Amino acid sequence: MDYYRRIGAIAAAIPSDLRAVSLNAFLVPLFTAAVEKSRSGSDPVAENRTLFQALAIYINNENIEQLIGVELAESLPNPKLIEVRLRRRQDLAQHLVAMAAITASAGADLAQMLATTKEAYDARYRSGFSFSDLAANTVGVTMAGHSTRDARSARLMQERLANLQNEADYMPTVGNNRDGLSESDFNAIYQNRSSEEYQQRLSEIQELINARPLFRDLPVR
Q: Residue 70 falls within a domain, yes or no?
């Protein structure tokens, strides 16, 4: 898989004294390669889908075998693992690329359902409901949705992602969001995930994302 090899080359070039890098350290060169491939006649939607899948596997430290099979996976060198962060948080980068890969492969509706279900699970059993995580999930869904919608949108997103300047180009500030809400605290504020208050909060997050430079003035269907 070409993108997985490129990820390995990017990781290998990162100085050994760096403990972590921004997600942009991978997005920019990978989408630069995608631009070149599309200009050479490759299907931009397929390129973007494969790119997101490979990046999610690497950043979440999953086994590439699940995507390409054992035989081909054994022919690939194991890339050096580098901690990849978004807004200085590893988990936000992991959330974003995981949802991007799911969106690219199975569609935005399934990805959003999985994202909100996971946060509800976290509220009950783990670290609490996190709007920061949900924002990163939604960025991933939005990014991959536009990147795989059709050929025109895919090419435009390739160009924009290849020219990212900083994380704020696509990720809104999440520091003011309520994070770590227990199930009881969440229910006290929002009642449930069908409530008007909760749906309004989701709409506010989507509006913040849509206002980021990466997503501004995109063509409508």
A: yes
In a domain, 220, yes or no: no
- Name the domain count of the chain: 1
Per the domain annotation, does 14 fall within a domain? yes
**221 assigned to some structural domain:** no
- Reported as a single tens digit per residue, the pLDDT across 183-208 is 677 777 777 767 888 888 889 899 99
Q: How far is CA 133 from CA 7, 8, 93, 177, 185, in A?
A: 24, 27, 9, 10, 17
The model's pTM: 0.86
